[in-house]
Structures are given as structure tokens and as C-alpha cells.
Amino acid sequence: MPNREVIFSAKDVTKIFGAGKRAKTAVDGVSFDVYDGEIVTIVGGSGCGKSVLAKIMLGLYPQTSGEFLYRGHKIENLKDHWNEVQCVFQDPFSCFNQFFTIRSQLEDALHILKQKPTKEEVKRRVDAGLLAVNVKPQDIEEKYPFELSGGQMQRMLLARIFALRPKVLIADEPTSMVDACVRANILDYLMKLKAELHMTVVFITHDIGLANYVSDRIFIMHEGKIVNSGTPEEVLDNTTEPNTLKLLDDIPEVHKAEWVKNSHRSQKRAAAAAALAK
Q1: Which SS3 state, helix, strand or coil, does residue 49 take?
Q2: Band of pLDDT at residue 274, cut at 50, 70 and 90
Q3: pLDDT tens digits, 104-115
Q4: What's the predicted TM-score (pTM) here?
Q5: Percent of the chain having pLDDT more than 90?
């Protein structure tokens, strides 16, 4: 993708927590580029380092070593960075203060913008964000976060993104706490966000099926390293990489038929199991 702007660039990025015998390497020498307008999904099991990498992208964690750039520059001013890069986290309730109304918090979120909107513009943008996720503004008037369900609160997070209109969205397990029907709706809203705001999107998930559904490119992480990367076809259809095949094996049996595309898959799985057992 030589003609597209590089949004995130990582070169040998490592993040270590602690020191000495208690040091834990969460991200281990990863290198990659994320290009303008694409959807990249980082897939891996619990503890693989994918959420730590997402927080490096947000500027919440500095890397221990290596170089990490946003649009060719180091992340130094977080307020400026968050004007362009926003996130949707796994637990929407942790993103809202339970003692303030939802509307007041949605409106307060717009105060981070460099160009301060007027009070009327704030109301208009929040109302438009709510309508974009099929919520009537009057339905949340004077309501507090604890009065809504998990799926409804996830929509409030997405309404905030519609109102803020960032250039980049990092979505860290945005569908893991909701049921299957709500999950499909959340994905539809995220794709709507991408299309309407022309955003670059980085998904973080353990669900390789979701990655196949939404991604332009997929990065597979294991023990802090990116062990496989490419288009969904390159990563999923003919891979021999052991950790990728293990993730494919975790897909429920009812969905496996669409993934098993040739008679050699079982042989690859056996080889992957042997490699992982070493």
C-alpha cells in the first residue's frame, strides 16, 4: 500500500512491566504499519499482549524500547492525540461515571476537541450520534449508566464516537460482553462508523471469525509477538502457522465447515498441535 498514508508505524516495539526477576514482557519486538482507511484486526488469546499494544496506540503506555509513531511523529501531547484517536473498550460501564447522567457525559466528551463547539452544536452532535445507533435522544434523558443494559451502554460508547468524529478508532473487544444478536448490531454500527467517518479502525479480539468478517488485514499475536500477518485469505486459508491454526480450532463446530476448505487442514492442525506441545 505504498500510496496510502501510514497511520501507525511500529519498529521493534517492546513493552516490559516490572523489573528484574519480576519483569514481564507484554509486547516483544513487534514491527508493523497500519495504513489510512484500512481495518486491521489484532487477534490472540488472553495475555498475548494485544490490549497492551492497543494502549500503546492510544498513548496510554509508552513503549520500553523501539519506535512507535502516529502519522510519522511520536505521541507526545495526549489531548491532541485523542482529538484524532479514540477507543471503544470491552466494558462500557467502566467508561462512564455512574453518578452522572449519560447525556451530560456524552456532551462533556466533546470538550476535548481543539475547536470548541457551541452549546447548540454539542447538543446537535450528541443527538446525531444517538440517532446513528438507533437511540432516540429523549429515551436517555436524565438516565444514568446503571439504568441501561450492557448492549445499550455499548451503543452509548459508539454514539460518543459518532459525536467526536475521530480519524482513528481502536475497538478493544467491543462485542465480547454482549449476546449474539446485540453483537451483530454492534458490528453493523462499527461498519457504519467506518463508512460515514472514513476512519482507520484497529480491532482487538480473540475471535478469529470476527477478524475474518471485518478485516482488510489480520495480525496474529502470541506471547507478545506478531507471529502471522496478512489479508484474511493469506492468514486463514492456507496457513501452517501453529498459533493461527489453534485459533481456528477454537471456532465452534457449527461454524467450522466454512473454514475447512481442503483436505490438508487436518494435517496442518496435527502439525500445529505437535509444534505447540514442544
Answers
A1: coil
A2: very low
A3: 999 999 988 888
A4: 0.82
A5: 51
Q: How far is CA 117 from CA 20, 140, 166, in A?
A: 49, 22, 15
Distance CA 58, CA 83 (A): 11
CATH of domain 6-237: 3.40.50.300
Parse the chain into domains and list their residue ranges.
6-237, 238-278
All cell numbers assigned to 27? 509486547
Side-chain half-sphere exposure of 253, counting CA atoms within 13 A: 0
Cα gap 65→213, rounded to integer Å = 33
Q: Over the stretch 47-73, which tens digit does the pLDDT of each residue have?
A: 899 999 999 999 999 999 999 999 999
Alpha carbons 59 and 45: distance in angstroms, whole number: 23
Question: What Å distances lie between residue 142 and 121, 147, 277, CA to CA?
Answer: 20, 10, 55
End-to-end CA distance of the chain: 37
Residues sharing a CB contact under 8 Å with residue 20, sequence separation 6 or more, in sequence order: none
